[in-house]
Specification:
Elements lengths: L3 H36 L2 E4 L2 E3 L2 H12 L1 H18 L6 H14 L8 H25 L4 H27 L1 H6 L8 H51 L4 H8 L3 H17 L31
Antiparallel strand pairs: 1-2
Length: about 300
Amino acid sequence: MRSFREKLGDKLMMKYSKVFRTLGIFILLLGVSLLAYSCYPIPIIFGYYFQVSSMFMILAITLLGRKNSIALALIFGVIIWGLFKEPFIVWVLVGEIIFLSLCYNNQRRGSFLLIDVIYWLSLGIPAVLILIHMETGRLETNSILLILTLIVNSLTNALLAEVLLTYIPAFSLMKQKRRSITLHRILSNVAIVSVTLPFVVFAIIMGWYQSDMIVQRASKLTTSIAAGIEGQLQGWNSEDYNLLRLHSIVQLGRLQDITDKYVENDKSVRIIIADSEGYKLTVPFLYMKRQYPINF
């Protein structure tokens, strides 16, 4: 027979093994979530991005349990908001993970996707609208686009996490509590994935294409405008430049006239010429979107 000391040692070994396993998965999921959020956003529409970080935190709900997943979401929110200075709306995503953690039960038949839909209809959309109104003081068409992007992003992540936990053996083995897979659940997941996945992939491809086109257009426009202004300034002599450095009203006016001609042709641009100390030598028009700094 085994002695009491040997049995106690085995129990302690199992306990510490479980603790280190949980800690390892916790650190891994937190690191991957931070890396995915800060370094690998996927453009959908120019200015809006698809983030997969919440998918890893949804995985934590099943792999680590309720308390650990809530702790992971809170630490993620503090780091992203406090250190990376991200907008306050990141806490809406943290609230999503906390809501899923509190409502999801491994022992019952539930769906991350269904719970996520309930969250956005009851708490997510109102919270985003309140934050937008607090930030800008008004609600515009862009607000609806932002909400739709967040909802599609979150529901897709919930669906992907559910598929990984259900059908990938590596995740199934790491789950704290396993459930049997029913035919109804398989058919439901196949139907939802067959509709959602092509739409998301198409949106991502179009986002990459639009982002690349906009960046190329902005680069060509910047080069063209800068070359044109520099060409007109070649007629200036050293005295003109010296007076400009002294902020002479005459030279500043001439420089302003040069930039105004470009802005009149395209109201979507913003031209700002500054000296080496950062002092703005021209005043931009009202309808301006970009800056083209030219240093003397």
